[in-house]
């Protein structure tokens, strides 16, 4: 269990849509937050939060940001499959290494914002469990596959715990038919982060980042061991989205 009021929590990618939501939601719960992003943080800072504009490719800065942290919520980096390999290389590969080196030094737990693009070339007719083969569908998806494997290496070699969350589609509401299967509500995301902090041990595990959607593409994962069960569902939107 990580005491999020006493030990700081580093949240990278804090200026992105999910980072901004988590900064606000977790700040309201009394978490001590260190926020970081390449871009300026656009919102008022929550109580008990600080912000540093930083490049994850800068090892010294990442190590300084993570000092004394018990938990790192790693949402930073290129976040869509529109990026070239060169654009992916910095934050998603080199920056990730710096995050794990910081976690090793501080003995911090990592929540890694992975993606369904790590397995995007599986057929939709297959229901996938968390141990399915990687089938990345882009350089972005490939970088997240690398991130999950980095987490496994640091757990096996150094005991750094990781929860890799393969996020489906995290928006305030589902906006198309595909999201009837992949949607993750902001509230379910917040509850998942709380469980990632509160669990006694998480090991190195994978969570399908989706709410309780009847049309889900995904099956078994580690949510029961974490004590997380999504409370929202895309199902009420089925009538308007098809």
Shape: globular
Approximately what portion of the residues adopt beta-strand conformation?
A: 15-25%
Rg from alpha-carbon coordinates: 17 Å
Return the structural class: alpha/beta
What ranges have pLDDT less than 50 throughout 5 or more consecutive residues?
none
Q: What's the overall average pLDDT, rounded?
A: 93
Account of the protein in words:
Helix 1 (17-28) links the parallel strand 1 and strand 2. The longest helix has 22 residues, at 85-106. The protein has a seven-stranded parallel β-sheet with strand order 3-2-1-4-5-6-9, with helices on both faces. The chain is an alpha/beta fold. The protein contains eight helices and nine strands. Helices cover 36% and strands 17% of the residues.
Task: Provide a compact summary of the structure.
By secondary structure, the chain is of the alpha/beta class. The protein is 36% helix and 17% strand. It has a 7-stranded parallel sheet with strand order 3-2-1-4-5-6-9, sandwiched between helices. A two-stranded parallel sheet has the order 7-8.
For the structure shown, list the relevant keywords:
9 strands, 8 helices, alpha/beta, seven-stranded parallel beta sheet, single chain, two-stranded parallel ribbon, 242 residues, globular
Helices and strands in order:
Blueprint: E1 9-12, H1 17-28, E2 33-37, E3 49-53, H2 59-66, E4 71-74, H3 85-106, E5 109-115, H4 139-158, E6 162-167, E7 169-170, H5 179-182, E8 183-184, H6 186-198, E9 204-209, H7 223-226, H8 238-241
Parallel strand pairs: 1-2, 1-4, 2-3, 4-5, 5-6, 6-9, 7-8
Helix pairs in contact: 1-6, 2-3, 3-4
């Amino acid at each position: 269990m990580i005491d999020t009021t006493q030990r700081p929590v580093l949240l990278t990618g804090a200026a992105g849509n999910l980072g901004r939501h988590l900064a606000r939601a977790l700040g309201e719960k009394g978490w001590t937050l260190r926020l970081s992003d390449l871009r300026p943080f656009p919102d008022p800072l929550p109580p008990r939060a600080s912000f540093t504009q930083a490049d994850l490719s800068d090892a010294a800065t990442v190590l300084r940001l993570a000092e004394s942290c018990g938990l790192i919520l790693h949402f930073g980096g290129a976040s869509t499959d529109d990026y070239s390999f060169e654009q992916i290389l910095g934050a998603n590969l080199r920056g990730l290494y710096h995050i794990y080196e910081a976690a090793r030094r501080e003995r911090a737990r990592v929540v890694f914002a992975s993606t369904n693009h790590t397995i995007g070339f599986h057929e939709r007719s297959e229901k996938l469990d968390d141990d399915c083969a990687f089938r990345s569908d882009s350089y972005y998806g490939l970088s997240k596959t690398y991130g999950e494997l980095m987490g496994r290496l640091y757990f096996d070699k150094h005991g750094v715990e990781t929860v890799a969350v393969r996020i489906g589609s995290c928006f305030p509401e589902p906006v198309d038919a595909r999201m009837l299967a992949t949607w993750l509500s902001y509230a379910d995301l917040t509850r998942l982060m709380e469980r990632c902090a509160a669990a006694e041990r998480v090991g190195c595990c994978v969570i399908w980042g989706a709410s309780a959607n009847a049309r889900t593409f995904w099956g078994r994962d580690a949510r029961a061991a974490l004590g997380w069960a999504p409370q929202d569902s895309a199902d009420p939107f089925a009538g308007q989205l098809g």
